[in-house]
Write a structure and sequence with these properties.
It contains 13 helices and no strands. The protein is an all-alpha fold and 282 residues long. The protein has one domain: Orthogonal Bundle (MetI-like fold), CATH 1.10.3720. Helix 2 packs across helix 13. The longest helix is centred in the first third of the chain and has 34 residues.
Length: 282
């Protein structure tokens, strides 16, 4: 068998495996969307296309949850996710700029230690964080979900540093000759040129904050005016299922992932570019 034929055969096998994997992950999503548009009596039907198709589940979602809880849950999730993005982008970009541009003794060692923290599961630090916030009397508020984002993060720092290394160092020298300070170089040169990497980091942080269930469940009470959408849906899951309204629960789950889909499709070009170039080192 000639080499071109072998390469073509391997490409076909790879594409078949990738398509199979994509379908495996897509089928549950399609089923969730299908159930959200069905009548309760048809919730266990095997038909992918609902018959009849109804929007009643989405209206019932706002009626069945008390005191407009779904609106408060959605607002809280957006608020905490956006604040997490702002905190991570600001702190990680400044740390990444220092590790990529500023030369000081022990820089590589400190960066290696920072990257090594990626091996520590976030659940390990949950108890020490809880003790700190309890000492500060912040348990039961949203601050334990906001403040850690402004402490920086190893993943975001690593991602942006790798991207900063791809920017020509000549720009720094030119800015220095023009009398620019380090902050001016960071804010006016590197940040505008790093939009793809910033977009990639923003999507990652928004996704993690939006889907986070453990930390809001630990730090926040079951007050529907304070907690997040993930906790609210988990809290009402048993209530809706026992009421025979599994379709309403699927409608809530579908609405909870719509913001993630919209954000990704809007910024997918910058996201892919940022991921692709962050691993390139000059």
């Amino acid at each position: 068998m000639s080499r071109p034929i072998t390469k073509t055969l391997l490409d076909v096998i790879a594409y078949v495996i990738l398509i199979f994997g994509a379908l495996t992950m897509l089928i549950p999503f399609v089923w969730m969307v299908s159930v959200s548009f069905r009548l309760p009596a048809e919730q266990f039907s095997r038909n992918i296309i609902p018959d009849p198709l109804t929007l009643k589940n989405y209206s019932d979602l706002f009626k069945d949850l008390p005191n407009q809880a779904f609106l408060f849950l959605t607002y809280n999730s957006f608020k905490l996710s956006i604040l997490s993005v702002i905190g991570q982008v600001l702190t990680c970009s400044m740390a990444a700029f220092v590790f990529a541009i500023v030369k000081f003794k022990g820089r590589d060692f400190l960066f290696a230690m920072l990257v090594a923290t990626l091996m520590i599961p976030p659940q390990v630090s949950l108890i020490p964080d809880f003790i700190i916030f309890k000492y500060l009397h912040l348990i039961g508020t949203q601050w334990p979900l906001i403040l850690p984002a402004f402490w920086g993060g190893a993943f975001g720092t690593f991602l942006l540093r790798q991207y900063f290394l791809t920017i020509p160092r000549d720009l720094v020298d030119a800015a220095r000759m023009d009398g620019a300070s380090l902050f001016d170089i960071f804010w006016r040169v590197y940040m505008p040129l790093s939009k793809p990497a910033v977009a990639a980091l923003s999507i990652f942080v928004f996704k993690d904050a939006w889907n986070d269930l453990l930390r809001p469940l630990v730090y926040l009470p079951t007050d529907m005016q304070k907690t997040t959408l993930t906790v609210g849906l988990a809290f009402f899951q048993q209530q809706l299922q026992m009421g025979g309204k599994f379709t309403v629960l699927m409608a809530g789950a579908f609405l909870s992932i719509v913001p993630l889909l919209i954000i990704f499709f809007i910024a997918q070009k910058q996201f892919i570019e940022g991921i692709a170039l962050s691993g390139v080192k000059r």
